[in-house]
Amino acid sequence: MNNRDLTAALNYHQRTKHSPLSIQTSRHYLDWNNRPRPFKIYSTLAPIPLPRETAPLRMSALEAIAANGDQPAGAHILDSNLLARIFFLANGVHRVRKYDELEFYFRTASCTGALYHIELYLICGDLPDLAAGVYHYGAHDHALRKLRDGDYREIVLRATANELAIARAPAIIISTDTFWRNAWKYQEREYRHTGWDNGVILANLLATVAALDLPAQVVAGFVDDDVNSLLSLDAEKEVAVSLVAVGRAESPDSVQPGRGLAPLDLPTLPLSQYEVDYPLIREVHSASSLAEDQVTAWRGELPGQPTPALLAKLFPLAPLPENDTPRDSLDAVILRRGSTREFTQAPITFAQLSMMLIASSHGVPADFLQPFGATLNDWYLIVNAVEGLPSGLYFYHRESQALEQLRVGNFRDRAGYLALGQELGRDASVNIYYLADLESILDRFGNRGYRAVQLAAGVLGGKIYLAAYALGLGTTGLTFFDDDVTAFFSPHAAGKSTIFLMTVGHPRKRGRSSRALT
Questions:
Q1: Contact, 496 vs 435, CB < 8 A?
Q2: Quick check: 319 and 403 in contact, CB under 8 A?
Q3: Are 102 and 52 in contact (CB under 8 A)?
Q4: Sign (positive/negative) of CA torsion 385, 387, 393, 395?
């Protein structure tokens, strides 16, 4: 398929929508005896342990979330200590919880179903204490494993059509998606979760590099086959989905010519006893893959977005004064973050909601979100309990930092229904929906735009995670009845597609039995 054949992404989106009928008629069940292994484990490669003891980050979580547009100047070279922080805070294991005889591993970033289908890899030149090479990050033991020896950044540079951030990066972190690990539970809808779950990881990663005063750029436009080959992936099962250029060398000339790609034979432990193939996932991924002549066209500024007409009353956001803003460090917030299982229905304050919206909507440094601050998603809110804000439906005007009141009323029950009938949606203080004009995005980017809009929403959701926990609240991402959500926010949202949902409120405290990793 071709990236410009837009029927592929539209067909995938339509076929993976949830509706009451699709839920009622589904015969899918979870075979717990075949639950996929949550880690990719190379069985023959020796680990290169990363440091575990690191000094606390000085930047507060709220500052780090909103700081990604301020790229520091000058050269910024990485070492093992910096890489250890980035990998651990982005997607490391920080807690193990036991249920009977089973152990569940909890990561620093959330994942749908706790299935952790996103893997991280490193491509780097010679660093002060790490040789140039291609590495896999093993979250299970917080270690790198070398897949290739030598500097292969030139291959990534060519695959991104000489993207400047890649040219100057001493290190490139690549995210991949392992289809089956998430499809075990979610079937074809897995590919939506690729963007959400990778986006949450990238939100942590971008906040971490900001706190470390490192430049970073998300690159989602690249020749898929070249990057997959570099990592020696079986592209029927695992594929590269994003790159992040981290740090900055003295000049682009510091990147050495790449070497030839010999095939690798590196066995890994099987994910489960057997795997079920979902061709629709592979079809939409193939249709959104880019060839070399398509990568350059991917970059460039987004078309100007019309300013939405103001139809109703505006509520300007009212964040806390700077002296009263929580100052908890980013790493402390990441380590206490979780996915809330129950909300109390207690109200949050308008100041808390204001700070979450401002921090999360500041901007994302990405090749498909140019100029910085551009967005693919719109914010729609169901307010159930926010002190100082009438309950009802709202649209967030990011430029003016104000909420437009679309409808007044108590919509708790409807919020629960729209969130696939889950009590979390009903009991949350606020439901934040991300909707997008999918057809215009696909017209600009081709099918690749489907990856972009899901990834962008995932990053926004990841920032909400961090902001909520920095403010002492709880949050979790949920799925939804697609068309019913659009209809509920219409006529304002007419023609838009529902992309992602974050729920926020006060978590109900529950006992837990777990042990932290040291």
A1: yes
A2: no
A3: no
A4: negative
Q: What is the pTM of this model?
A: 0.94
Provide CB contacts within 8 A for 314, sequence distance 6+: 397, 400, 402, 403, 404, 405
> Smallest Cα–Cα separation from 463: which of 122, 153, 203?
203
Is residue 72 pLDDT above 90, yes or no?
Answer: no
What pLDDT is attached to residue 516? 38
Question: Is residue 333 helix, strand or coil?
Answer: helix
The dihedral of CA 211, 215, 221, 223: what is its sign?
negative
For 389, list phi and psi in degrees, rounded to 5.
Answer: -135, 120
DSSP string, 90-103: HH-EEEEEEETTEE
Whole-number Å distance between alpha carbons of 256 and 205: 26
What are the structure tokens assigned to 166, written together? 């890649």
What is the 8-class DSSP label of residue 404? Answer: E
Predicted confidence (pLDDT) per residue in 86-127, tens digit:
999 999 998 888 777 677 788 999 999 999 999 999 999 999
Return left, alpha or beta for 357; rule: phi > 0 is left, psi -120 to 50 is alpha, else beta: alpha
As a three-state string, the secondary structure of 423-452 is HHHHHCCEEEEEEECHHHHHHHHCCHHHHH
Structure tokens at 161: 């059509």
Per the listing, tokens 């030598």 go with 150
Nearest 5 degrees, angle CA 438-CA 444-CA 448?
70
How many angstroms separate the Cα of 502 from the Cα of each of 366, 368, 474? 22, 23, 11
Secondary structure of the chain: what % helix, strand, coil (to 5)?
35, 25, 40
Half-sphere exposure of 346 (CA within 13 A, CB side): 11
Q: Classify residue 98 as exposed, middle or buried by CB count within 10 Å of its CB (0-12, 13-18, 19+).
A: exposed
**In contact, 137 and 121? CB cutoff 8 Å:** yes
**Are 355 and 327 within 8 A, CB to CB?**
no
Residue with tokens 């804000």: 389
Tokens, residue 249: 């060398």
